[in-house]
Amino acid sequence: MSSAPGYFVSFEGGDGVGKTTHVRLLGDWLHEVTGREVVVTREPGGTPLGLELRRLVMHGDDMDARSEALLYAADRAHHVATVVRPAIERGAVVLTDRYLDSSVAYQAGGRELSEEEVEALSLWATRDLLPDVTVLLDLDPVVGAARLSGEPDRLERAGDEFHRRTRETFLRRAAADPERWVVVDASAPLDDVQAQVRVDVAARLDLTPALVDPVDVSSLVEPVETRWRLARPADEEGRE
Ligand code: TYD
Question: Does 56 fall in a domain?
């Protein structure tokens, strides 16, 4: 884990696995139990510039695989420089809906560029920022596709074989680096998936239950409020 005061957690998985819902639910819970600032963001499109890139890459003209990889990398570079890194440095917990592993899974696994090159491009774009924890919500892409509604975007239209390779790439990366990744079966009911996500993320972040102020006498008459402690003190906590 890095030594910055904050934490960085990414969510990955195919289309329709429920990442957006689970990122939001985990963010609300982490804020409630730790009192920390929690920043929930996403790629592509976590910044105003990123929203324009998102429109171009997902809904624009067809493009070759390298152009696509560069647009996602440009979005990521700007997102990290302006949102993610400043938040981690001020002690926030940053949760992102997709990060660099999506590029490796979609542009390398799916579009069949080299995994090493696509990963190196993202590491260059982000000055080597890797998440403390990456949650893979794993689901058969056929089941994920059936959960989607509305007009499919360029990536969703890429076909079953493409999405099968994408899933395989995520699973292979997770198996190769179990210290960073947790894999959660996203075919279970929503509440069960979220419960598993909380347990796994809390364990990885060394989140331990702790009383807010064990010597505060008011806690003897008021209901005892339980807070959870994160291993790394945020600036904000130091000032309290
Ligand atoms: P997402 O925001 O999950 O889509 P939606 O809002 O429709 O749920 O992801 C956008 C699409 O971009 C998704 O199909 C995956 C793809 N993608 C890549 O191909 N490479 C990347 O680096 C990223 C971040 C996303």
Answer: yes
